[in-house]
Amino acid sequence: MKRKLTCPRCNAEVTIPWGWALGVEIVFRCGKCDAAFRTGYKMGAALSALALTASLAAANICVWLFSSFSLILFALLVVPMWLLLSFLLRRRWLTRKARRKERLTQEAARSPKGGRGPAKR
After folding, report:
1. What pTM does this model have?
2. Which residues contact 13 (CB under 8 A, 6 or more apart)?
3. 26 lies in some domain
4. Looking at the 3D structure of the chain, how many domains does it have?
5. Among positive and negative, which fits the CA dihedral 6, 9, 14, 18?
6. Tens of pLDDT along 24-33?
7. DSSP 50-102
8. 5 and 16 in contact (C-beta within 8 Å)?
């Protein structure tokens, strides 16, 4: 599990804390430029629910394919699979959100103070 991501502001490598990786919604910062990273409680919960659904569906399909004798094995794999899928989905959301925020900040700094960008026609 890759617990590092690249800061969009300063391109430094940021280590994701274990608490966040396991599903606890915390804010962590880049050590170099102090940029904040967080998914947000509601989106983190939605992505975690999606990961739980996917892990349960995968376990059901595997039990159906391999026979009912494998039920115990796949039941034991649901929670680790849920945590892994949740981490991967939340990390992807987090990096996209951080990149989008940095891009919007840069665009706002370049645009004139009176407007929010090019005028719509």
Report:
1. 0.62
2. 4, 5, 6, 7
3. yes
4. 1
5. negative
6. 777 888 888 8
7. HHHHHHHHHHHHHHHHH-GGGHHHHHHHHHHHHHHHHHHHHHHHHHHHHHHHH
8. yes
